[in-house]
Design brief:
Layout lengths: L5 E3 L18 E3 L11 E2 L1 H7 L7 E6 L24 E6 L1 H11 L7 E6 L11 H11 L7 E5 L7 H12 L5 E2 L1 H8 L6 E5 L3 E3 L2 H10 L5 E4 L6 E3 L8 H6 L5 E3 L32 E5 L7 H14 L5 E5 L7 H26 L2
Parallel strand pairs: 3-4, 4-5, 5-6, 6-7, 7-9, 8-10, 9-11, 10-12, 11-13, 13-14, 14-15
Antiparallel strand pairs: 1-2
Helix pairs in contact: 2-3, 3-5, 8-9
Length: 359
Amino acid sequence: MDPELVQPMTQEVLPPTSLLPDGASAYQMDISTPENPIDHPLTEQDIQQLSSRRDLLSLSGHLILPPGRSSFILPANAPRNPFWMLQELNLKATSDAIAAFATMVVGLSCLKRLSLQVLCGDPSMPAIPPVSLIATIARMCDDVVLRSLCVRAHGDDAGPEALALVEDTRIHAPDVHVYYRDFLPLIRILAIREFRFDLPWTFHLDDDLLSYMAEQWSHLEHFHLATAPYAKVHPGTTLAAFPDFGVHCPRLETLGFPFDGTTFGGRDDSPPVVNLGEEYYSQADQCTALHVVNSPIKMDPDDQFEVALFLSYVFPRLSEITGSFSDAGAGYARAWDMVEDRVRALSAIRENERERNAP
């Protein structure tokens, strides 16, 4: 391994000295190129060399499992818990390579940030069932240490063409469905602050799942589920998924998931704000941005105002609503622009009231 690629840690929160093994120094190890760290090959030979590093805090690369294999082979002198000091892991890999790595490391008790770009859609690439992939990811993480989990089929800098390519490969791959129960292994990670999950699957989401996530993840700051154009969603989530985020997630800043904006849990005979009840109190006064995904909404301006009023109750400082719309949902884009205008106006009114009432 090139010694020049071992760089001292700078501006990182390091583990207490008591947690460092004897003789270990505080270094961040990144075997990747500075330009595109996720694209640098990470082979079995690299894994073998790195497994004995006791000061390795960060690892990025394109993880490659040897053809025809289901596991990585470690040297006989490898530690029982390789990579246990990792605080950040950023991998691009097929699901079977991720599973092989997870089996090797067992559990990463110091890991704070996990980012996975899962290579999907190519029939020549082996894949494990979605429920197994989710459970595998959960086994890699500590329940009270992990802060950020990002699982997607595209990279951080993916443009429209890259997203479209993932969507095209999805068409030729078997349709994959995931349900409420499949996400349960992840919900036990109680300290999570950032959750982003997008794969070319069909997500069967509902209000109960989103509400349960909000109740369990009280430290959430960013929550985005099935917001990429290649993620398909079976209808089921409505405006009723929002109130628990307001009650249980006081640190929430951004939020995004597909939902039906025409109904509150199947009830569309009264304004959605009425369903909050007189005792409803939101703590999510830091949430400023909402991302909607092909979300239906009524075209009547009065109904749009009711949705805006509802959202401003749940997120008092909400000021930005962005959207992703397929051709079928393009007609809703303008309606959500109108909702955004009304939400901004309501937010400004509340801000003025706060300033007037301030001591």
